[in-house]
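Quick one: sequence plus pyridoxal-5'-phosphate SMILES, need structure tokens.
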Amino acid sequence: MTRNKDQTTGRRTLVRGGVMPESASRPVVPPLQPSVVYAASSADALDAQYEGRLAGYSYAREGHPNADMLAEKIDWLEGGEDGLVTGSGMAAISAMFLGLLSRGDHVLAGDQLYGRSLRMLTQDLPRLGIETSFADAGDAAAMAVAIRPNTRLILVEAVSNPTLRVADMTAIAGLAAGADALLAVDNTFTTPAMFRPFEHGADIVINSITKFLAGHSDVTLGYVTARDADHRQAMRDAAVTWGLTPSPFDCWLADRGLHSFDLRFAAAERSAATIADHLSGHIPGGRGIRRVLYPGRADHPDHARARTLFGGRHGNMVTFEIEGGREAVNAFIGAAAGIPFAPTLGDIGSTLSHPASSSHRGLSADDRAALGIGEGMFRLSVGIEPVEMLIDELDAALAAVKGD
Ligand SMILES: *Cc1c(COP(=O)(O)O)cnc(C)c1O
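Reply:
Sure thing.
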């Protein structure tokens, strides 16, 4: 029974040394490999690994099989190569900034980014001597005047949160190229099922795997890759040095989530379109809905741009505004008990968020109003439940607000 003996000395021990039983057949599920360290056969072999002549791992912060397997699948989805999986979406954004920017550089960003990205840009990068400013990514002229001689990177999301405005990607890609700046696109909201930024001039693509790609709200992971190999290496080095490493178990779970990504996204998108139409139908009826924002509807201000950019896909996010103030908001949340009021998106289950008290709570009411975010605004991330159930839930919540 070699299994109970140390492989090299032949002595029995419970410490290390165990070997997996051999099997002529292979597992269909990829193994989870939590090992932090890997034993090399010699110093020469380790040299060969570090010099890229031999494939192999040495220490998990520098890379591990579950991360690489996941990265390869997302590369394929995003049309990128040699992507980096990180411990969160924010870690992916951090790897990009830390790897590619230096003191004195300027970053121009869309003004309706994910809340933590905005915070990183307003509070953290300036401490490192990196200048940042913001402009409406839907307004090419506003973006153009915000470019500076030291603009090194432009960061946008193709669809804004929570008003679902669509960025003028064609114009922005032209601006970035003209200014010799890198264009980075956070593709979390849109997902590669709907938008592939590299095909629209992006130099860098980011995704919070935590959301749609993993899809089950049980892992926190991010992804980033760049068109240019030197940029990829710089981001990878930053991630290894700053410790932005993903957990093998999270990568393993996210890989499992990816199996159903296309199906989940398509189902959620279909339901989102149905819900947007249903809620819009309540506007003239005095049923407590003030407006509905869904890029797939002809009444969305960026409908035409969405059609061109997303090839007929419009995503799973529906934003709507109910009548009444905070009291109505609380009543709505209380009555829509089957839809968790939770600050996330892209889960298999629908989730409801209230930007004024969550993602955009850091802004003054005036600043929120300038972005079109009212107190009664909700953002619904539609999941894969039966759409009739979601509609019943939303109608019951509206009825509760109106005291019907
Ligand atoms: C959630 C999110 C992030 C951050 O991802 P984490 O995995 O939570 O760190 C970044 N950008 C967008 C658009 C997001 O929705």
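The pocket of pyridoxal-5'-phosphate is lined by residues 88-90, 114, 117, 157, 186, 188-189, 208, 210-211, 220, 222 (CB under 6 Å). The longest strand covers residues 151-157.
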